[in-house]
């Protein structure tokens, strides 16, 4: 029989009341920092080993000027890091999409529309 890996999960209710001391534009970012500091202090680990999950991140940034007053999270120990996610949700890493550079044709499409570009190409063929 194979031994199953026991995953260590801890549940915390993190108060984010201090985030409201900051100006409105900085509250969500400060709330994320409060979560990292809280987990690092209670688990006695380095803040660099903490990763915030997708659902928790979306909850905080849903209204960045007024994040929730407190958040219930579950902390799971992975191989190299600790995953912090909203209680009751499975951890998913946050995906950051990098903006890709648009070419001249795509910029024209946005400004003029598809019909205008098609008409320009037809004019070039006629000339």
SSE layout:
Layout: E1 9-15, H1 27-43, E2 50-52, H2 54-62, E3 70-77, E4 82-86, H3 104-112, H4 114-126
Parallel strand pairs: 2-4
Antiparallel strand pairs: 1-3, 3-4
What does this protein structure show overall?
This protein has helices at residues 27-43, 54-62, 104-112, 114-126; strands at 9-15, 50-52, 70-77, 82-86. The chain has 127 residues and is α+β, with helices and mostly antiparallel strands. The protein folds into 2 domains: 9-86, Ribosomal Protein L31e, Chain: W (Roll), CATH 3.10.440.10; 102-127, no CATH class. The chain has a 4-stranded mixed beta sheet. α3 (104-112) packs across α4 (114-126). The chain is elongated. The termini are far apart. 17% of the residues are buried. The mean pLDDT is 88.
The share of residues in helices is 25-40%
Supply the CATH architecture of the largest domain: Roll
Question: What class would the helix/strand composition place it in?
Answer: alpha+beta
The run of helices and strands is EHEHEEHH
- Going by CATH, the homologous superfamily of the largest domain would be Ribosomal protein L31
CATH fold group of the largest domain: Ribosomal Protein L31e, Chain: W
Please indicate the count of domains.
2
For the CA atoms, what is the radius of gyration?
23 Å
